[in-house]
Design brief:
The complex is a heterodimer of chains A (about 350) and B (about 270). Chain A is an alpha/beta fold and about 350 residues long. Chain A is about 35% helix and about 30% strand. The C terminus of chain A is likely disordered. Chain B is built from 12 helices and 2 strands. The model of chain B has no long low-confidence stretch (mean pLDDT about 90). Classes of the chains: A alpha/beta (about 350), B mainly alpha (about 270).
């Protein structure tokens, strides 16, 4: 199968000008501008097949948005190959954007003062969507996203969750082959997040739309994506199933113990104390190194325990640990991008 | 064709959202026409004491004043999207990216992004002053003069519009509005309301060679009103308005597209 997105050694380097200070500096700026080169995207390569639902994650400033901007044709790459559906996005902007959709969670693509039904009608003209398709899609999306109660409300009067649902509907109306979703669940409550995830899953399964999802909410990824790409400092550090990542790095478990009385230092050799609150102490330990029963045994020999709980470390924490401790660096997964 | 249809729909939506409350809307237009009209009224009162300025009567000044106000008002309405008070935030808030994601010509979308109907007030004011001017004068009308007036108005609209496009383009680099550009837009429209030979030579030179406003108002008026030209320019300069405006627009659009390309390669 030919990939729908082909990226090879893609780079984007920004020039950030240094400003001299003061009035004399202003003058100096005119003649002698010094700048730093920021390698926002520093040679990334990947292919995405039609119908895939890929999670693209990384800490703030890792190069996520720069990549998405290049993929959507908003930004011209500094170097490297980038082909989406056979075209170079920024070179054939109008032709290219006909076949893609995009939702940026932070801002709306809809017309601020128009009722969303008017926005959808305008989009029909803009994308020249055939009557049949438009009607069928709109009816379908209205039902799944439950848009009916606010179809005639202007965007400016919608809640964040309502607006996001309207934006999602707008992005898929013209049956795009490929859709970019940037933080589609940001700032939403659990119920609203779930509804949006179900919609994304449905569209991907039903219409085989290729979806690239960037998000800070790792639960989005866990629920939706079989494949995840992690970018940091402009390089792709991991590209594969989320499962593999979690079993490799997510071996940690949590042991939460409520002691019957207060002990000043109830420490364990093979577990670290994450937090303590009065007589309750939370330990974290590595599944591979020590078993929960051994730790509990050690504790109960020395202290009186009134209650305890063992659980897996939440996925968010695992991912945060991967970012913070830079666990993917110098790891075998790094072989895809030999470090410079 | 498709593009024109989209532009019509975008503008229609703009009009629809502004006409929601008809009475306040009409009052706003009338009050803005009256307020702007006071400038001319005050000027006319003073001019009455002297009878004329640089050999031009109140009626003659009203003629160019009215055309310039009407054209600027028309432009300010049609080119609202390029007004850098609106276009700056469009860039800063990333909404320009949203426009780039739609399969429609980008210039057309900026055109359709805003239409400030309030500017009808300035158009109305200009029209009244223009009609007042004509009624005061005994213009020796010919077919050529009658045809030239609408051409002149269109030329002025495009001329001011070009300045707006240039102003909008600078925001790709500065992100902020550049106050200095107001000298040419609002200043240009101001200058065009007076017979230009009354201004000191440096100012005239700026508005001849840097921003060729003199071809838009003073020289055409010399022809239509049969005024002597103390600047002794060749007769053809009276008819250059549409050409100068076309060249200005062409240059402005070149700069605009250059700005967009730069925006796409530098990011924001």
């Amino acid at each position: 199968m030919t990939p729908i997105i082909h990226v090879n050694n893609l780079r984007k380097t920004y020039k950030v000008y240094k400003n001299h200070k003061g009035y004399l500096g202003l003058l100096k700026n005119l003649f002698n501008r010094q700048f730093d080169l920021i390698h926002a995207v520093n040679g990334i390569s990947f292919d995405i097949q039609p119908g895939e639902l890929v999670g693209y994650i990384g800490p703030n400033g890792a190069g996520k948005s720069t990549t998405i901007k290049m993929l959507t044709g908003l930004l011209v790459p500094t170097a490297g190959d980038l082909r989406v559906d056979g075209v170079i996005p920024w070179k054939e902007r109008k032709n290219y954007v006909k076949n893609i959709g995009a939702v940026f969670g932070q801002r709306t693509t809809l017309w601020w003062d128009l009722p969303i039904s008017d926005s959808f009608a305008l989009l029909k003209d803009i994308y020249e969507i055939p009557d049949q398709t438009h009607k069928a899609n709109l009816n379908l999306f209205r039902e799944i996203l439950e848009l009916d109660p606010f179809m005639e409300v202007p965007v400016r009067a919608l809640s964040l969750g309502q607006r996001m649902r309207a934006d999602l509907c707008a992005a898929f109306l013209h049956n795009p082959k490929l859709v970019f979703l940037d933080e589609p669940t940001i700032g939403l409550d659990v119920v609203a997040k779930q509804r949006i995830r179900e919609f994304i899953q449905f569209i991907n399964a039903e219409k085989h739309t290729t979806i690239v999802l960037t998000t800070h909410d790792i639960i989005d990824i866990a629920k939706l994506c079989e494949r995840v790409m992690i970018i940091d400092l402009g390089k792709i550090l991991y590209d594969g199933p989320l499962e593999t990542l979690l079993t490799t790095f997510g071996g940690r478990r949590i042991l939460s113990v409520e002691f019957a009385e207060f002990y000043p230092e109830p420490s364990l050799e093979e577990a670290e104390i994450l937090q303590r609150d009065g007589s309750t102490v939370v330990y974290s330990f590595e599944r591979k190194k020590v078993s929960a029963s051994k730790l509990i045994h050690q504790l109960s020999e020395q202290y009186r325990i009134s209650d305890l709980e063992v659980r897996d470390q939440p996925i968010e924490d695992t991912i945060r640990e991967i970012y913070e401790k830079q666990l993917l660096y110098n790891h075998p997964y790094d072989k895809k991008n030999p470090s410079s | 064709m498709h593009h024109i249809k989209i532009l019509r729909r975008l503008l229609h939506q703009q009009i629809k959202s502004q006409r929601q409350y008809p009475l306040p809307f009409i009052l706003e237009i009338l009050s803005s026409a009256i307020i702007l009209g006071f400038y001319f009224f005050a000027f006319a009162l003073i001019l009455q004491r002297f009878g004329q300025i640089g050999g031009w009567t109140i009626g003659e000044v009203a003629f160019i004043w009215g055309i310039s106000e009407f054209s600027f008002g028309t432009m300010d309405m049609l080119f609202s999207g390029f007004d850098y008070d609106a276009f700056g935030p469009l860039i800063r808030k990333g909404q320009f990216d949203q426009l780039l994601l739609r399969p429609i010509n980008i210039t057309l979308q900026v055109f359709g992004s805003r239409l400030v109907l309030r500017r009808l007030g300035k158009m109305l004011e200009g029209l009244i002053i223009f009609i007042y001017g004509i009624s005061m004068l005994n213009i020796d009308w010919t077919v050529g003069k009658l045809l030239y007036i609408p051409i002149l108005i269109i030329s002025q609209v495009l001329f001011f519009g070009s300045l707006f496009i240039i102003g909008a383009t600078t925001t790709f680099w500065t992100m902020e509005r550049l106050e200095i550009l107001n000298i040419f837009t609002y200043g240009g429209s101001e200058i065009m309301s007076y017979p230009m030979h009354i201004f000191p030579r440096p100012i005239r030179l700026i508005f001849t060679y840097l921003v060729p406003a003199i071809f838009m108002s003073y020289f055409p008026a010399v022809y239509i009103l049969d005024k002597p030209d103390p600047l002794n320019a060749p007769g053809i300069v009276s008819f250059l308005a549409p050409f100068v405006a076309s060249i200005m627009l062409w240059l402005a659009l070149r700069f605009w597209h250059f700005g967009i390309r730069n925006y796409q390669s530098s990011g924001s």
